[in-house]
User: Fold Importin N-terminal domain-containing protein from Urochloa decumbens.
Amino acid sequence: MEVPPEMLDALAGWFAQSLSPDAAARRAAEQSISSAAASPGFALALLGLAASPRHDLQARLAAAVHFKNLLRRRWPKPDADADDAADLLPASDCAIIKTHLLQLLLTAPPLIQAQLSEALAAAAACDFPARWESLLPSIVSSLGTAVNAGDVAATNSLLAAAASLFNRFRNAFDNNALRLDLKYCLEIFAAPLLEVFLFASRRLQAAATTANPLELRPVFECLRLCCEIFYSLNSIDLPEFFEDNMHQWMSEFRAFLTTSYPPPVEADGAPDALRAAVCDNLQLYMEKYEEEFRAYLKEFVEAVWGLLMAQTASPSRAQLAVTAIRFLTTVAESVHHALFGSPEAMKQICDSVVVPNLRLRDEDEELFEGNWVEYVRRDSEGSDADTLRRAACRLLRGLAANYREQVAALVSAQVQQMLAAYAADRANNWKEKDAAIYLVIALMQKPGATGGGTPVVDMESFFTSVIVPELQAPDWQSEPMLKATVLRFLKEFRDQIPKATALALLPSVVRFLTHESNVVHSYAATFIENLLIIKDAVPVPGVNAVTRSPRYVAADINPFAPQIIQNLSTALSFPDSYENPYLMKCLMRVLGIANITGQIVHEITARLVGILMEVCNNPKNPDFNHYLFEALAAVIGRTGEQDPALLPAFEASLFPVLQRILVEDISEFWPYAFQIFAQLVNLSRPPLSQNYMQLFGVLLSNATWDRPPCVPALVRLLRAFLRKIPNELNQEGRLPNILAISRSLLSRSSTEDSAFYMLNTLVENVGLDIMNPYISEIWSALFTRLQSRQAVKFVNSLVVFMSLVLVKYGSGVLVSSIDAIQPSLFSQILQRFWIPNLKLIKGALEVKLTAVASTKLLCESAVLLDAAAAQLWGKLLDSIVTLLSKTNQDLAQEQNDGADAVDIQKTSGYSVSFVRLQYAGKSEDDLLKEVNDPKQFLVTSLATLSAQSPGRFGPVIEQHVDPANKSALLQLCAAYNANIV
Assistant:
């Protein structure tokens, strides 16, 4: 694999500059890399730089990361759409990469090795094993060579590659193809894995008394990787090879759990990392293969319990404890719970495992003060790396599942003891109260949970005597970790706090928004934000159904909003909270619900714009940035609609920063900027200012649409312009330009949604007099695409578009314009695509639109009313009834509340992608507001039609409509007092 040295030198320079703190230098380097990515052999050059020992390690590492991400995006997938082929790596480059990647991985430094291992997994996910048959045999062959030579480092590199290869078996959907791949892997790799495992185990036993951790660390790592692969290969089913050799594996596992190594080795942490991997495997067998594992269960419970009792200075002991407790929890929740059922065992678990691990440790305090982001991630968000506290809580809940009264008695006594200790010496025993609150959080029943049983404490009394005093304490800056736990309690039980109580406590919570601890003010913000999205079930009058209604509305939050906004603004200036996503999310939510007026609107807009100006220098926190733009959208949307006079002030504040985003090519923010522009255009009144018309010119430039992540936002902006200035399309060749852009979008499956959205927008907003000269061009593009693209998604979009044309311009225009392309083409389209796909349409507005349009076809179109089209007429009616037979509940579930969508929406990584701003978008327009009920529209239209030709349509319905749908149609006729005669 030869790469020109000058190419490697140039790449190394760009990657070095891409790490520069200077924004201009960084963006120039990123632009150079982006330009080079389009050239042939770019992936090979990246791999060559990653493997080049003569270049700087940081540049090599950056190249390896870029290479890994490139393979994830552009490696050809077996089921890839032909439209996306231009973006994929050429087959020749892929072949070279597959030939060299494994060998380069073996010789790379550890940091680069990890990235290349993930790159290998990305390529293998598409090609292995069917299109990369040499990979696994190469790994096995190299493993044999490394083991025979006693080369543990090379063995570990190969095992790491294999581990990344097999990791997909852990979470993939179980199907026959996956099982065939697993069978292939087991046949080739299961026996060599056991050989390597036993080789490393023998090597460890021979050196067990060695006190030098550096010598033993690679051996422990080898065994840990074997355990990781063991887990992957056993994740789907218990393979015969592992069942036949279970005794060998379990004997070694038990030895690792029960053997003590010299203190320097234990302190290194490698033994505990291996034990944690063993505990993961034990839990897997306990969960999935309990019958086969039963014979080993008691000895492993004793071994794991012994580990939790042992004291050690190992830095990995916390993670081991988490996995060990998780295993015990699985046993406690199983039919083998009697192993813990005796009063002595239960008390020992509570006293020696649960309570000690619930108490705050020195490491927790250090993390709280030194890395608040990681503390919150572990403590509150349920991160991948479980904390000891969370694991201990789960063990307690696992025991309580079968022994709730016994556990409740033990915990209740423990809580009282801890609170008494705190009362005796508040200054020194605040950790006791903290642990007591955690115990209550662990065992209190949540709404909707099953089980019931003995309560741990009286919730109302505990809340009043333990929680409220901390919230209202004058010294609210003291004991920040305890205050954080109190706020965490509020968040966990927010649904159960009566509305009046929550509003009464809100001023106390709002104080904590300016607490000097990042964790505390983050938890306060999270509680307020979570409080505002609570919804209660409200019965729908006259219908046996419920709807979800917000518990807290603008009137509830308005009195507190100015102080909340002010405190959040203050907290955003604190050290390390400049880009705190929890604060910004809370601000977004308050601005999206409260009614704010006057000076506060200008102040918060200026504050948000100032923050945006700062993050433009280095957009590094995608969650914060998303909530920042949502907050801006919320201010513009809520206050701009209420007071249009604010629009000039918004434009004056926002145009400079939005223009900076475009001019400086801050690509991460382009999709957001276009959505904000769309919002401003929607609020404007024609004629639009010169600034907007210049933006309209930029929008119609083909180069603007060359960035796929921006396309959905650009379509929203175009939609806004078309609503305001539809007649401007006749000028300067704008409409042909837009149609050319739509054809380009239509040619790719990844942007075809946006193409249809653009065409729908044109039809909705532009009259037939303007569209008529171009309608044939649109049909030609759509039907040409249909010849190669008949996926359900595409055909459904086409049916929706045709329905829109019918509703807007009339059935005659729809039929004649399509038949102008080719005689009788409409009938063919109707029979092959419209009728079969109509019943597959989803979305409340789409269902209504297509049902009404199809009804109009039935009752108005000469093509369908022709006696020769009786079968087609009946089949179309059958599809309409099927479509409308979907329950109202199904359609309601497809609708989403904007605020909820913001809550569940997560941005990922740092790549440019389109993320919809919920507060910037209005709900879609209903072009059929005059039709309240499409079912009623159907039967009344049919009744009117049949009255004009009595006796004609009954036999057609009898012959061509499905019996179930005939029955449904009769029920609809009865419900709406209509008759088909």
User: Anything to note?
Assistant: The chain has a mean pLDDT of 89. Residues 388-424 form the longest helix (37 residues).
